[in-house]
Design brief:
With 383 residues, the protein is an alpha+beta fold. It has helices spanning 24-34, 71-83, 117-124, 140-149, 171-178, 213-224, 279-286; strands spanning 8-14, 38-39, 43-46, 59-66, 106-110, 134-137, 156-163, 183-184, 204-210, 230-238, 250-253, 257-260, 264-267, 271-273, 292-300, 303-313, 315-318, 329-330, 337-338, 345-346, 351-354. It is 18% helix and 27% strand.
Length: 383
């Protein structure tokens, strides 16, 4: 056992999985179990969703460890025996048309916590390698370093367990954790479908999210007692549901609106609102030219992928009504309007009529369609 009285260091790991399976959280869990020194609270950080070589959930891992210089040689050996062989895994996807990159694991060890600007760069845009400390592997070093740099001033927690065989979580256990006020994203409120257990081939049995560490620990134990056999579990501090990926809102007027078959909407050739976003897309479909809206979203390839929206102003221009009840019509540019029925004229060309939107509040996609990083804009974290 390496002495725990030595320096604090930051250890990071990323990019060990592919769509075929694998899981960086499990690889990191096994690394923590094997460490010959003490460590702090493990951290799971989601990064920029559009990163070119992102993994399935674009998650990276880090932890503060307490060791001396001999830990470097130990990590060298562990890397060669357990992590380096994971390089090169790749598969195709039936649900995503983006290019699938081979896994390219990376591990970092810093003697001092990296500047937090490295985290903000990686969670809000394309990032690159940073220098310093000891580094192993390839592309995964970017996410590993970014995770080490996370300031963790705003966080949630996730309890993760990994399955030994089949994946099955009892409905009773799921109901118990869903009823806890501090848990969120346990069940889809629309369909009542559970959201803690993934559907793919990865080794995760469940992942339960909470706003406090105590709640995450309790919820994890409840699910462990109500699921099939697992090979381990661990609670991570995370940046999920913090909104860290967004710098601020954008306000704009509707100048053009294009409705695409299937329910997608493009506003001003810049704002993309996908049908899967539910009320977000419906609100965009309701908007008319001249309306003002505020939105939250990420810019990618000069377009904003909208994650939340609200209507600020909605006004329709109408021709005035004649005393006889008919709607007046234009007589030509600069000539005013005239009633088509009684021929009365008016110098008032337009009247503004306020249209009431479905809601003046923020609307977001259904909970199962939001990004891992998306923050709930209501007081209830479950909605």
């Amino acid at each position: 056992m390496i002495s725990t009285r030595w320096a604090s260091m930051w250890l990071g790991l990323d990019d060990t999985d592919s769509l075929e399976g694998g899981c960086t959280t499990l690889v990191f869990h096994q690394l923590l179990n094997a460490l010959p020194c003490e460590h702090g609270e493990p951290r799971l950080t989601r990064l920029w969703p559009f990163a070119a070589q992102r993994t399935r959930g674009n998650a990276s891992l880090s932890v503060e460890i307490y060791a001396d210089e001999s830990i470097v040689a130990w990590l060298d050996n562990y890397w060669e025996d357990n992590i380096a062989p994971l390089k090169g895994k790749v598969s195709t996807s039936d649900h995503s048309d983006r290019m699938q990159y081979p896994s390219d694991p990376g591990m970092t060890l810093f003697y001092e916590k990296p500047d937090e600007k490295n985290y903000w760069r990686a969670v809000r845009g394309e990032a690159s390698f940073i220098e310093g400390g000891h580094q192993w592997g390839g592309h995964g070093r970017i996410g590993a370093a970014a995770s080490c740099a996370w300031p963790a001033e705003n966080s949630t927690w996730e309890g993760i367990a990994w399955r030994k065989g089949i994946r099955k979580v009892s409905e009773e256990a799921l109901t118990l954790v869903d009823e806890m006020p501090e848990t969120f994203l346990c069940r889809d409120p629309r369909t009542k479908r559970g959201l803690v257990a993934p559907r793919g081939p990865c080794p995760v049995m469940f992942g339960v999210r909470a706003t406090t560490l105590d709640a995450a620990n309790i919820a994890t134990e409840i699910l462990l007692n109500g699921c099939e056999e697992t090979i381990g579990s661990r609670v991570f501090r995370t940046n999920q549901a913090t909104g860290d990926h967004l710098e601020g809102s954008i306000t704009d007027d509707v100048r053009t609106k294009l409705l695409i078959k299937g329910g997608h909407v493009i506003i001003n050739d810049r704002y993309l609102l996908f049908a899967e976003s539910g009320e977000v897309s419906k609100t965009a479909q309701w908007l008319a030219v001249g309306d003002t809206f505020e939105c939250l979203g990420l810019e990618y390839e000069n377009q904003i992928h909208v994650e939340a929206i609200r209507v600020l102003k909605s006004v329709t221009k109408l021709r005035p009504l004649c005393e006889c009840g008919s709607r007046m019509k234009s007589m030509g540019q600069g000539q005013g309007v005239r009633c088509p029925k009684c021929k009365a004229k008016s110098d008032i060309v337009w009247l503004n009529e306020i249209r009431l939107p479905p809601t003046m509040k923020w609307v977001q996609p259904p909970v199962d369609k939001r990004r891992h990083l998306a923050k709930s804009l209501t007081l209830d974290p479950k909605s």
